[in-house]
Design brief:
Largest sheet: none
CATH class: Mainly Alpha
Order of helices and strands: HHHHH
Distance between the termini: 60 Å
Helix content: over 70%
Oligomer: single chain
Number of helices: 5
Structural class: mainly alpha
Shape: elongated
Length: 183
């Protein structure tokens, strides 16, 4: 059992979770980039990998400020999200955009998990009066929000329209076969 006796210890716990989550993401992203077919999705994932490397460096800087080295403390939430994403690596489709849609959805789940984690850490750091830590965490939070928006835009502008055009014929065929419900 782990004992937490202060707000500072709570912040350290959260920062260790975030640090581990970011490390897990760095390990997983190359496989997702390789699986993606869409150039815009590949670019977004690649850009986010570079951002994540910078975010880890920022967390190392925060560790120096608070006098802690972040290691261990496996982030099980991120592990679960990444395991779900790893399952997608086994998916096949005649329409690669369908796989890309699922990859983008998985990326958004990860971004939103990170946004929640960073937002909480910002709140705790603010309460502790750690202005420099708050600034660094907010910088990363802004990047996570932007990445989430970018994945949304890729879904809306690139991936969903591509699949919708191809599936319209299926919807039309299904609609003509549907029988009205008799009361």
């Amino acid at each position: 059992m782990t004992t937490v006796n202060s707000l500072s210890e709570a912040l350290l716990h959260e920062l260790q979770q975030i640090y581990n989550a970011e490390r897990q993401i760095i390990d997983a992203l190359p496989k997702l980039i390789k699986k993606a077919d869409s150039a815009s999705l590949k670019a977004a994932l690649q850009d986010h990998m570079e951002e994540t490397e910078n975010q880890i460096a920022r967390l190392d800087r925060i560790g120096s400020i608070v006098g802690s080295k972040f290691n261990g403390n496996k982030c099980k939430g991120m592990q679960g999200l990444l395991e779900e994403g790893a399952d997608l690596l086994e998916f096949e489709s005649e329409n690669p955009a369908l796989i890309d849609i699922l990859l983008a959805c998985g990326a958004q789940k990860i971004e939103q998990y990170e946004m929640a984690a960073y937002d909480t850490a910002v709140s705790i750091a603010e309460e502790l009066g750690l202005d420099e830590v708050v600034e660094l965490l907010e910088e990363t939070l802004d990047e996570e929000i932007a990445a989430d928006q970018r994945f949304s835009e890729i879904l809306a502008a690139d991936l969903l329209p591509e699949v919708s055009e191809k599936s319209d014929a299926l919807v039309s065929r299904a609609a003509t076969k549907a029988q009205p419900i008799k009361s």
